[in-house]
Amino acid sequence: MKLFRKYFTFPTDTSAENLGINVLNLGHNIHPSNKPYPDGQHPDDYYFEWEKGRSLKEYQIIYIPKGEGYFESSGLPPQKIDAGTIILLYPDVWHRFRPEENTGWEEYWVGFSGAYAKYLLEQECFNAQKPIIKVGFNTEFLETFSRFIKIVEVREESYLKLSSFLLIQLLGIVYTSVLLSNQKKSRKEDIIDQIRNEIHQKWNSNIDFEQLAQSNNLGYVWFRKTFKEVLGTSPNQYHLLLKLRKAELLIQDSHLTLAEVAYQCGFESEFYFSRIFKKKMNYNPSEIRKRNSKPE
């Protein structure tokens, strides 16, 4: 897969500052396995050596939707990072992180400052000593980041203010996730979380959900009803949307043909893939590259 990487530096925008939040940088990177991290293309202001670590003058949200790694910060022991983890960085706090060498990882990040950001991240539910937030595979979070990047790439009028609104939306998702994680999970949620992890491990395979329920000592009717109750959609639809989201990223980040993308994502044919993609995502998969190929 061709690596996709964008770093943006935002100019100061008075209208955005009036919202109490100022976007400083934004990016998405797929770091492959068995490669040094950070690599040589990391911006100088954010580059760090593992032995020394770093501290920033801004807040950052880092989301790891795929892969594994490690994180350390002042006063905290090393912590394992799994797929579906948010790392919340505070200004002037020493830290360091890197992906597991044999897995690599995918990362999204946004750096920001401002009075509203400071107010929100000083709420009682947030804590610089608890920077790791587990959200799992959060499609709303990924879609917001994707819209964020597209708006900045196109740089249409008012993109700075739109960027601030999207950052507020991201912070709202993080805030909600922290509040929910502070509540004790029910037994149902624990079971569904475990099965959801299995679905993510087999995302591009045909999954027999009756067999999956049976292997977890569950009745299929109870499993299907509870899955929808906890996640708001059926197991089949969740799996389908997961594959479509992966396909969208492959189209955006690689030079694979649509037929190759369909095959890698477990669809029976390019025709079926294109038809179901259009139905569920409300646009044709071929439009993704057309949008990305437009000059800024």
Main beta-sheet annotation: 6 strands, antiparallel
Q: How do the strands of the widest beta sheet line up side by side?
A: 1-2-8-3-6-9
**CATH superfamily descriptor of the largest domain:** Regulatory protein AraC
Oligomer: single chain
**Gross CATH architecture of the largest domain:** Sandwich
- Helical fraction equals 40-55%
What structural category arises from helix and sheet content?
Answer: alpha+beta
Distance between the termini: 24 Å
The number of domains is 2
What's the helix count? 11
Radius of gyration: 20 Å
CATH topology of the largest domain: Jelly Rolls
Q: Which whole number gives the mean pLDDT?
A: 83
Residue windows where pLDDT falls under 50 for at least 5 positions: none
Please give the CATH class of the largest domain: Mainly Beta
Shape descriptor: globular
- Write the element-wise H/E pattern from the N-terminal end onward: EHEEEEEEEHEHHHHHHHHH
Count of distinct strands: 9
Beta-sheet strand percentage? 15-25%
